[in-house]
Design a protein that fits this description.
Rossmann fold, 43% helix, alpha/beta, globular, 18% strand
């Protein structure tokens, strides 16, 4: 029997590349996302359309997707949104709440669902970011949400004692999110953008391959850790 993988946010970028990689390696992929790319429509793809910003629907989506599943090799909490790059002073609480809902609270509901459904999840990796600790000007809700995500993972690691949890920063990946920043954000007002432009980047496919190779190594670190692939 093949192994099961759970991934959120497979519509584009890193999530899509990870789903393709695991499918190619013979895994059954259980995915939550707003849409399913045509090239991922295979017999081993089990998909449930789900907008993670609608929190009241998240648990129901997970239950429907994972009905009857007893074991998951790895759950990759990849889905996330950026929000606007602008000063905290200019960012409304509503905007902050929207980012927190997807990047943090939806993941809490997914983790709760794993517990409710009594699924044996061997490993959980939440895709975090260096923004969680850098807190560069303009990253406002994204930085706050990723810092909170790191804390969320550490807290659940104390409770999910049979599961190894990690918050992992994947480095710079040429996703639609990053491309938007590079092409649209004022690098003079927000100097971190200039540094991003000069820094090495990976395609989603390159990043997915690196993460696939990195995931087994995470067991060497304490459950609940925040790690960055660029420093491992």
């Amino acid at each position: 029997m093949g192994k099961n993988v759970f991934i959120t946010g497979i519509g584009s970028g890193l999530g899509k590349a990870l789903a393709k990689l695991y499918l190619d390696k013979g895994y059954t992929v259980y995915a939550l996302s707003r849409h399913l790319p045509e090239e991922l429509k295979t017999k081993n793809m089990k998909f449930k359309k789900c907008d993670l910003s609608v929190l009241e629907n998240v648990k129901c989506c997970v239950r429907e997707l994972l009905n009857g599943v007893k074991e998951i090799e790895i759950a990759i909490l990849n889905a996330g949104i950026l929000g606007d790059i602008k000063d905290m002073y200019e960012t409304s609480l509503k905007e902050l709440e929207e980012v927190m809902d997807v990047n943090v609270w939806a993941n809490k509901l997914i983790l709760d669902s794993f517990i409710d459904l009594k699924i044996n999840v061997k490993q959980i990796v939440a895709i975090s970011s260096g923004a969680a600790v850098n807190c560069n000007r303009g990253w406002s809700g994204y930085s706050i949400s990723k810092a909170a995500l790191n804390c969320l993972i550490k807290l659940y690691s104390r409770e999910m004692e049979k599961t190894h949890l990690t918050a992992l920063a994947p480095g710079l990946v040429l996703t639609p999110m990053l491309l938007y920043i590079l092409e649209n954000v004022d690098e003079n007002k927000f100097p971190s953008v200039k540094r991003l432009k000069a820094s090495p980047k990976r395609t989603p496919e390159e990043a997915a391959k690196l993460l696939y190779e990195t995931f087994p190594k995470l067991f060497e670190y304490e459950s609940g850790s925040f790690l960055d692939v660029r420093k491992m």
